[in-house]
Give the backbone structure.
Amino acid sequence: DAKTTQPNSMESNEEEPVHLPCNHSTISGTDYIHWYRQLPSQGPEYVIHGLTSNVNNRMASLAIAEDRKSSTLILHRATLRDAAVYYCTLSGAGSYQLTFGKGTKLSVIP
Amino acid sequence: NAGVTQTPKFQVLKTGQSMTLQCAQDMNHEYMSWYRQDPGMGLRLIHYSVGAGITDQGEVPNGYNVSRSTTEDFPLRLLSAAPSQTSVYFCASSTRAPGATNEKLFFGSGTQLSVL
């Protein structure tokens, strides 16, 4: 399975945009890029996913590099409720599992 | 909406005891899975199922058994608990298996298990 690499931690000031990077240099052409987040003491929750084009939803935006070897999750205006661990993962053809690394722990400073 | 329900939320076991972690979903999802989460280790897949009667191993299956007799339920059994199985366990489900799809996983709220 293709691997992803994320920074261990990031900080952001409240109400400022946050760009969370993810590298996936071995991604294959049919792999979807998924982002999940895990709030403290809760199960992970889906944030956004994409294949080739940039994607927007009510929670965030996903920017995918043209070569698809990296992506960036964008929180347009961080709030204290966005403090969580953010996971970038790939779903590949023929795979029955989503593999979650250690993710990026986002701290939001009031 | 109930979504994915896990019981119990907390459990303390003695080494060698057995127990079953329950997971139920009411979304008619074909795919269900179990993860464990240890500090600094992220989420690791234990077992998964692509439908009733079909199960397979994930990354860390040793010490755990599963079965899938109905679409709704996917229990995880510890036959002889060990301290190394102290962890937080999450159950997840989705309409279909994740591979090369845009299916999203729905997670339960977790079971915190301590084995003394």
